[in-house]
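batch job 7 of whatever, protein = Guanine nucleotide-binding protein G(I) subunit alpha
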Amino acid sequence: MGCVNSTDQHAKLRSKHIDEQLKADGERAAREVKLLLLGAGESGKSTIVKQMKIIHETGYSDEERKQYRPVVFSNTIQSMVALLRAMGTLKIDFKSPNSVEDTQQFFSISQTCDEGELPPDLASVMKRLWADPGIQECFMRSREFQLNDSAPYYLNSLERIAQPNYIPTQDDVLRTRVKTTGIVETHFTYKDLHFKMFDVGGQRSERKKWIHCFEGVTAIIFCVAMSEYDMVLAEDDEMNRMIESMKLFDSICNNKWFTETSIILFLNKKDLFEEKIKRSPLTRCFPEYTGANTYEEAAAYMQLQFENMNKRRDGQKEIYTHFTCATDTNNIRFVFDAVTDIIIREVKCSIIFAIKDGSSIYIPKDCACSNGHKDATSRAPPFQEAGRILPFVLMINVVHGRHFTLSYDNRPENVVMYIRRRPIIFT
């Protein structure tokens, strides 16, 4: 008898432990948000990820920022190389009599110095070249060749970044450019939600890797570089970058796998777009455009072009659009706060518990159940088959965070000890 009691107590303790673990896992699953960052190459996805570290984590430590020194130097030197090569391609002459000699000196020093270094003599030559009116004219025509957006930022900061004790600032880190290959996963917590953000390479060669991230996605953030409406792809000089982004957005927005997935559109690089639209007409990308080349009209037209691609815009699916500047921390903080509210409001999920008959499940008092379960706990009915009580699966369908329905399932294939989270459709 004593052995039987001991066995019963052990079974009860084990059952209690399993119930507690199921409850904990269920609560954790309900708070998990999976965000997929998509968009063409150089649209600002990786900068958004960096902002999440700054805004929702502890930012970049001194040691971490030091590790970006070689990247800053490399980006700055690469920008000058691109400008000097474009001078020849665009047939622009130097205006300073010493610039030809400075160009020769630049290539000589940059090819012999260690990678990721910026010697003082190289920095001096670059400052003189950047000041040449011919280089400035070339920069104003940067839509005609490939140049990092960060080029003027770093080249205007040569005096500072060339200092021996230079440590990149947070802003310096945000503007670094390293091509994303593969998948970069970032975790952070905000508003009691656990975010998993996936950044994947945007170049055509990287897109085949996206499919591995699609399962269980809560929302997609699609980034578009507004300022690239008059530019071509680095990997295809016949394809306009904006048209490429629109084709990619169409394939994501109207994909059958994302019919119930929230799509958040970031029209990014609004600062660069606002400056460029003054001198480069929107008709370079949209020949049918008849509006003014002002930020307000051109941006509104661009937004409409993307939102009109949504084939389910008749109330079935909404595109949430935000104009962003990924290098502006305050802007991204404000926008992501709004994005999180959208996610909280729109998220729909199923949490499935496999538990024993007659067990109680906890329902928070501030929740409202749509099919009659109003108590703080709900006791499930026993299921019987061939004279014996079966275990069952309890499904809680959570809608908009605080409303749910309860259903029971005792099919043998569904009675397993697990918790699963998946998107569902409510009618």
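notes: The chain has 14 helices and 15 strands.
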